[in-house]
Amino acid sequence: MNGSMTSVSFYSKLLEHTFDLFVYLPPHYNPLHTYHLAIAQDGRDYFQLGKIGRKMDAAIEEGARPTIVAGIPYPSVQTRRTWYHPGSNMHKIYMKCLVQELLPFLEQQYSTWRLPHGRMLMGDSLGATISLYTALTYPRTFSRVMMHSPYVNNHVLQTVRQSDSWHAFEMYHAIGTDETEVKTTAGDIEDFLTPNRQLHAVLKSGNARYHYHEFSGGHFWKYWEKDIPDALRFMFDIDKKRE
């Protein structure tokens, strides 16, 4: 039982950019039915390296709710950093694009649940960071976040500590134990593991439905790809449904 892959062209006035979105449609997709929606930053990577289509097929077979996945590709590494980094002036505009332009566009294209718990944001590294930030900024729009190795600094930690909205979230958070010397897109070498553990300490103290996992590996897709099935099982309560 396999879903289908397609692409859709989307133009953002806010970002002044045309995206060729990657879209996964669940098996037996029917436009008369209503589906959950997942939006992936680093969309090309999630589809080509993370094999998110195959992972969703398997999760649905195990009991996950049928979900449409839309992947947003970035035009260049530098633009990605400009859009995703919390220290950039453009990250707020990118978040507005997700909520005010992309989401209405997808809801016109497909029948999706128009409630926060019917929408999930996912991302890796800076893509995970901007996913978390978007949910924190627009909690009435998104309340489910799947994060692999997010970039975390003091500003990110402070933002989470000062927010109450995430207490109602569902979050999956994974980081590799070898992510102590990660080369960033800015060319710096940074420790991702320690600040992620600090973020975990904050998130585990709240009321969110939250799962934290440290995998054996580094800041690479070959490790994130292997972890995606477990992430989806948690996000869709698959193990609970098996009981």
Automatic annotation (TrEMBL):
Annotated InterPro entries: AB_hydrolase_fold (IPR029058), Esterase-like (IPR000801), Mycobacterial_A85_antigen (IPR050583)
Family matches, as SUPFAM superfamilies: alpha/beta-Hydrolases
Pfam families, per database record: Esterase
Gene3D superfamilies to which the protein is assigned, alphabetical: alpha/beta hydrolase
PANTHER family from the UniProt entry: ENTEROCHELIN ESTERASE-RELATED, IRON(III) ENTEROBACTIN ESTERASE
Protein name: Enterochelin esterase
Source organism: Alteribacillus persepolensis
